[in-house]
Write a structure and sequence with these properties.
2 helices; elongated; alpha+beta; two-stranded antiparallel ribbon; 21% strand
């Protein structure tokens, strides 16, 4: 995570995590983001993922961000007004 400058990590393992793994994940602390606080490193087992347990991750797309306006009217397209002269 540090080498690639990632703020969050998700470690998926086949078996139960060891106490050392859990301590290491807890030692990374929490990441403060626009949408709240998230564990910097989370450990998940395949069994948890197959049961539908979801990791605590921020949304990929901000719900607060507005999409750019796309003009669809032909009269408002670039160059359309030149034919009026």
């Amino acid at each position: 995570m540090q080498r690639d400058k990632h703020s969050l990590g998700l470690f998926v393992c086949a078996g139960l995590p060891t106490r050392g793994m859990e301590e290491e994940a807890a030692a990374h602390g929490l990441a403060e983001m626009e949408f709240g606080r998230f564990p910097r490193l989370q450990i998940f087992t395949l069994a948890e993922l197959f049961r539908g347990v979801k990791p605590k991750l921020p949304p990929l797309v901000s719900p607060n961000r507005r999409a750019a306006r796309v003009e669809t009217r032909a009269s408002h397209q670039p160059g359309a007004q030149a034919s009026l002269l």
